[in-house]
Amino acid sequence: MALRNHSTITELILTGLSDDPHIQALLFALFLVIYLLTVMGNLTMLLLIKADSHLHMPMYFFLSNLSFLDLCFSSVTVPKLLKDLLSERKTISIEGCLAQVFFVFIAPGTEVCLLSAMAYDRYAAVCHQLLYSQVMSNQLCVRLVLISWGLASLDAVIIVLLAVNLDFCEAHTIHHYTCELPSLFPLSCSDISINISVLICSILLHGFGTFLPIIFSYARIVSTILSISSTTGRRKAFSTCSSHLIAVILFFGSGVLRYLMPSSGSSLDLLSSLQYSVIPPMLNPLIYSFKSKEVKGAVKRTLGKYLHYCTG
Predict the structure, then answer these.
(1) Bridge partners of 14?
(2) pLDDT in tens, 154-187
(3) Average pLDDT, stretch 94-121?
């Protein structure tokens, strides 16, 4: 049987996170809260950046795109997970599975490019303060976002082609809660060595191609911060980068655990996938809100306008 042979295989079975009804109920409540927090946090960030003119800067232009991606990334997997936690039979159509494979790669693929662009933005802000507005022009910011989407789309198309060309025998049960390419490989009865090689090369090229500029940017940032004589100046310079640095560590760390570890369908495998696809989209708005004075100021101004409008 082949995944591309829709007349033979019409759906796949997902094992999900647990078969115990009581645990499923607890997990449903947990992930519903996480998803609602993710949606509210990222929508709030999008609306705040749109409404407050003080946030119309390159960093927050990238952050608005990051929030949109986090919304998409979380919405690709969590609603289906919530539905399956309430269902006895957890199935997904072939088309739905391929769609998940595509979006599970395009969303984080674009996000990692944006994190790289944001690292360059922080480098320009710290190392070239006087030329910042010239270096980070509106045209450059738009180009960086378009390039991020373009590279991630190309990578996702390659990944989907790998999934389409998988051949299956009788097994059509995915030991996972969602369709991801590493979880589809154990179902194949054909030689998948080329598929695995292409997947690894794609991930490594995309990962290192975006991670190396981050390393270079932060190497220059650290060098500049260490050259500042005053402790206050160093602390102020570092505070402009701390939110982004936390987001980078969280995203790359969970991504490495997910895609550079062999897929086994074990609890550790499921945990690494959840950590990668569910936790960062929820935490990113909190990270940037708590660590950014500009965002805190925008919240106060927006709430003040709203209260003034309501009482006026």
Answers:
(1) 174
(2) 988 888 887 777 776 666 788 888 887 777 777 7
(3) 89
Q: What are phi and psi of 173, to 5 degrees?
A: -110, 120
Contacts of 66 (CB under 8 A, 6+ apart): 111, 114, 115, 118, 284
Torsion sign (Cα): 26, 27, 28, 30: positive
Return the amino acid letter for 257. Answer: L
- SS3 assignment, position 2: strand
Minimum mean pLDDT among 41-55, 160-174, 197-211, 227-241: which range? 160-174
Report d(CA 72, CA 74) in Å as an integer.
Answer: 6
Transcribe 159-197 into DSSP letters. Answer: HHHHHHT-BB-S--EESSSS--HHHHGGGB-S--HHHHH
Give residue-wise pLDDT tens across range 36-51: 999 999 999 998 888 8
Nearest residue to 270 (alpha-carbon basis) of 196, 187, 203, 183: 183
3-state secondary structure 56-118: CCHHHHHHHHHHHHHHHHHHHHHHHHHHHHCCCCCEEEHHHHHHHHHHHHHHHHHHHHHHHHH
What percentage of the chain exceeds 70 in pLDDT?
88
What whole-number distance in Å separates Cα of residue 238 and Cα of residue 124?
A: 13
Q: What is the 8-class DSSP label of residue 12?
A: E
**Residue among 294, 307, 311 at smallest CA distance from 48:** 294
Selection from 88, 99, 96, 104 nearest residue 15 by Cα: 88
